Amino acid sequence: MPSPAVLTAHDLHFAHDGRDVLHGVSVALRSGTVTAVAGPNGAGKSTLVELLAGVRSPRRGVVTCRGSLALVVQRPAVPDTLPVTVHDVVAMGTWSRRRRLRPTAGAVAAAIDRVGLAGLADRPLASLSGGQRQRALLAQGIVQRADVLLLDEPAAGLDSRSRERTRAVLAEEAARGAAVACVTHDDTSIEQADVVVRLEDGRVL
Ligand SMILES: Nc1ncnc2c1ncn2[C@@H]1O[C@H](COP(=O)(O)OP(=O)(O)OP(=O)(O)O)[C@@H](O)[C@H]1O
C-alpha cells in the first residue's frame, strides 16, 4: 500500500507575463518517498515547485498540503552585504507554510554537519563558495524536519562527492518520513528517486 499523499496538486495552470507555462499539471507527494522533478530547461520545473510551495498561486487548479513544508531555493534570499553567518541562515529556517518553532542550537549544528559544513558555521554566508552556499541552503531546509521538503536543484554546481552527500541527505529525509520532491538534472538522482515526474513544455509526460 503506498503511503497517503501529504501534498497533492490538481490540474495546475500558470502563466508568466500572460504566457502559459504550466498546462494542467497534477502530482501527489507521499511520505517516505523522494520524487525527482525532471525535464529540459524551461519545462516549468521551478515554476511547479514554487506553486507546490505556495510561493506562487496557480491561475487554475489547487494545491493541498496536509503538513508543514520547507522550500530549498537555489539562491539565498539574503543580499551579500548582510552580515549573516552560516549558523544564522540555518537557524532562520526557510519559507514555511506554517509557523514553526525556532530550531535549537543543537539541531542547527547537526544540520550543518550533515551537509558537510561543520567548521564553517561561523563564516559569513557571503564568504562561501557557490557550492558551499548551496549546502548551507540545504541545511536550512532540513533543520525544520518538515513533512514536505521541496528543493530546486540542490545539487546544481556541486562536485561529485557533494552531490552524493546531497542525495544521501534527501534519502535520509525520506526515511524519517518526509515527502521529498527535488528538481534535478542529475541522472543518478533521477535513477535513485522513488518517483519521477517528467515535465516537458509545461505538461507531465
Ligand atoms: N520570472 C519569470 N518571468 C517570465 N517568464 C518566466 C519567469 N520564470 C520562468 N519563466 C518562463 O517560464 C518557463 C518555465 O520556466 P522554469 O524556470 O519553471 O523552467 P525550468 O524547467 O525550471 O527550467 P531550468 O531547467 O532551466 O531551471 C520558461 O519558458 C521561462 O522562460
UniProtKB/TrEMBL annotation:
Signal peptide (UniProt feature, chain positions): none
GO molecular function: ATP binding; ATP hydrolysis activity
Taxonomy, superkingdom: Bacteria
Keywords linked to the UniProt accession: ATP-binding, Nucleotide-binding, Transport
Keyword Phosphoprotein on entry: no
InterPro entries, alphabetized: AAA+_ATPase, ABC_transporter-like_ATP-bd, ABC_transporter-like_CS, AztA-like, Metal_Ion_Import_ABC, P-loop_NTPase
ABC transporter domain ranges (all copies): 7-205
Gene3D superfamilies: P-loop containing nucleotide triphosphate hydrolases (3.40.50.300)
Record NCBIfam families: AztA (NF040873)
Family: Belongs to the ABC transporter superfamily.
Protein's recorded name: Zinc/manganese transport system ATP-binding protein
